[in-house]
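Kindly review this protein for my students:
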Amino acid sequence: MGNRIKHSGIVDKIEDDCVKVRIVQSAACSSCNAARLCNAAEKKEKIVNVYNVVPEDFSVGEKVTVVASSQVGMNAVLLAFGVPFLILVGVAFLTSRITDEEPIVALVSICSLIPYYVALYFNRHRMQEKFTFTLEKTK
C-alpha cells in the first residue's frame, strides 16, 4: 500500500501497553554524498510510543517498522501547522483592524495561540487514540 508512512527503528523499551521505538529521523538530503560537508543535513533520534500492541510479541533491541497511514500524517500536520497558522493570521488581521500598533498586533496574535495549545494538551489522550501507529517486524 502506497498510502502509509513507514520508519524503521529499534525497540527501546516495553511497558504495560506501550512499546517505545527509537527511530532515526533524517532530513531528505542526509543520504547525499556531500552531507558530511553540508550543514543542512541533520539526523535526530526520536522515541515513538506505540500503543495497543501485544508487548509479548516484541523484545528490546528488535528491529521493527513503525507504520502510520498517510491520513494520520496529514491530520498531524494540520493540527501542528495549519490550524495555528489560521489562528495567527486571523487574529492578526482582526487586531490590525482595531489598532495600528504593530507590536500590539504581534503580541495579541502570538498570545492567541496559547488557548489552542492548552486545548491540545488537555485533549492529548483523545488524540493518542486517533493518531495510532502499528508495528511490523523487520525481516
